[in-house]
Model the fold of this input.
Amino acid sequence: MNKQILRIDASMRKNGSYSRKLSDNIIKQLTSQQRYSVKARDLADGVPLINEAWIGANFTDVAERTAEQRAVLACSDALIAEVQEADVLVIGLTIYNFSVPAAFKAWIDQIARAKLTFRYTENGPVGLLENKKAYVIITSGGTQLGSEIDFVSDYIHHVLGFIGIKDVTIIDSSAIGRDEKKVLSAANEAIQLSGKSLLAG
Done:
């Protein structure tokens, strides 16, 4: 059975999106030897926000949940299953107003669930989605990763690590507006190196 890539597109632009094009490139690299099947989740199609009903259902014991509560959590269950089944995540992420897109935050809220993707211990929370690799392509118009206004890269490392995904490679395609050709060239070079490294492993 082939290993599986889960592709997450977080850009709200379906046409002309840099993060989508770069995600295409890295998936082409990873599948060049046909070792992976690909499942795609496009967050531009919408992700439900958690609400009071969702919280109530989530904190109700599984055996005691009503049919309505199970229905409320159905989307979350499906999103979690996609991540659980994946060996590699390719996340195309753009920076909107110094942060991640709202749909991506909604996706994180849906998949970060105690007892399913993390658990609490005496020594603190422990992520349950181990032995996975994540490539996160981060694009922006002007925000430079590593600068004082970069509030995204540390967040990505932390939140993925929180659910157990600690092997995270960030493909820096930030500040495209400053020098598009240079930024995209460097990003594609990093993608080629990353893809070859994973295939070699």
Summary: Strands lie at 3-9, 36-42, 88-94, 118-121, 124-127, 133-139, 167-173.
